[in-house]
Amino acid sequence: MSFRLTYATMFNPPEAMHERFDAAMARVEAGLGERHGLFIAGEDRPAARYAQRHSPIDNELVLGEFALADEADVDAAMKAAHAAWPKWRSLPVAERARLVRKVGDLMEQRVYEIAAALTLEVGKNRMEALGETQETVDFFHHYADDFERHAGYEHELPNDPLEGAVSRNRSVMRPHGVWVVIAPFNFPLALAGGPVAAALVTGNTVVVKAASDTPWSGRLLADCIRDAGLPPGVFNYVSGSGREVGEALANHPLTAGITFTGSVGVGMQLLRQMASGAYPRPCIAEMGGKNPCIVTDKADLERAAAGIVRSAFGMGGQKCSALSRLYVHESVADELTAKVMEKIAAIQVGDARRREHWLGPVINEAAYSNYANYVQLLKAGEARLVNGGQRLREGELARGWYVEPVLAEAALSHPLWKQEMFLPIVMMHRYRDRDEAMRLANDTDMGLTAGFYGGADEVPWFQEHIEAGVTYANRPQGATTGAWPGYQPFGGWKGSGSTGKAIASFYYLQQYLREQSRTVVD
């Protein structure tokens, strides 16, 4: 197929894509219930304990039994990665890039099967699942290409102006050692695979931990890396709780650097921990978002409504980039609300395996309970629920974690304007002055993504004043979501990110390296 799948193009795929996904889903479902181990030192490794995991689509659907690593497993993985590091870092740039690219090639061959597993494990619809898998493929290809293009970031510098001798200078970038990757549940493949690809191609070895809710995705990543033939110990996979396995990884004396994607609280804790000790170690923390969108009186409201609904409710709002705060000029608020409501009414909620269902379940019972709690808080704060507020329990939906999309108008004093909910809930405010809207949009400790709908002459004003790492203007494909490797670098300002550098940007790979100045006098 000539169709190029990205998050921006996923809304009108060819029929063949659906046929292939349905066939892959049948194959994957036929193998449900298997036991999945760890991957350490180049070998599949059993664990002392396993946990049975069920699909959020249907609580009675058993996905399999997944290993629960303990401190001994973590120690074995870290030591294996440490032992493999000297040989891995000494490989030529072209050879490391070849092996990393091969992982992407294998994953692309398995894109439909992996996407089917993501739908079952996370509850995202087929296009979101296919998008995440293809995005991960692109991470492996993009980072291999980028590192080769920059020749490993080695630079000849001018010779010192010495008489009677030649003093040659060179700047080189060198890897740190064993790199730990801690992935979240919402993009368990892409937000593990992307950092893994970056760490590997730059010469680090890796230990990755999957989120407790989504161990299958990490295991499928491990399978691709195993089958690509990377040397034993270069990549290792463990699964288990953040409290036990995550802390053991962060505290391990061989941990040279960490990439973490998750909450602000845990990210800040890891940053402080990595800054302490005998010397500071790098920590790339990609944290939360409380993402705004401003709609002015010059906006194309049809385009705005499409982008708002896609970003607020796509994947149940369980994206750090999801639209959470909507600021609409009072003169167009009623018309925009009507258009948004039309698009919400067209959303079909249900079993994400089925093509017609755009919105699947939220991830687990805790998220399901949080939804009810947030709805109650909105009502208690005298917010007007324009749409939604019910947990869906009828028929086949009774066995999954299904909820209605919520659009609520609330007073600016309501505390939920400040809280990341990670659910399909968007709050709206009518404003009079656009500078007021900008002040409100920036009134947050986070600064990940932001959207804007207005006149072409207003876009530079938005871009100049908004405090966010990723911005979209007049984009119907998504008001605040939809970044793709090679097209939109993705990273946050303020409390949304620790480095000021974005995923898949010009500057991302250098974060996995440290500079060494080399002078040799002949």
TrEMBL record:
Enzyme category, top tier: oxidoreductase
Location of the active site: E286
Entry's EC annotation: 1.2.1.88
InterPro entries listed in its UniProt record: Ald_DH/histidinol_DH, Ald_DH_C, Ald_DH_CS_CYS, Ald_DH_CS_GLU, Ald_DH_N, Aldehyde_DH_dom, Proline_metab_enzyme
Keyword NAD among UniProt keywords: yes
Pfam families found in the cross-reference section: Aldedh
Catalytic activity, as annotated: L-glutamate 5-semialdehyde + NAD(+) + H2O = L-glutamate + NADH + 2 H(+)
Keywords: NAD, Oxidoreductase
Residue span(s) of domain Aldehyde dehydrogenase: 52-514
Pathway: Amino-acid degradation; L-proline degradation into L-glutamate; L-glutamate from L-proline: step 2/2
GO MF annotation: an example: L-glutamate gamma-semialdehyde dehydrogenase activity
Protein family: Belongs to the aldehyde dehydrogenase family.
Protein's name in the database: L-glutamate gamma-semialdehyde dehydrogenase
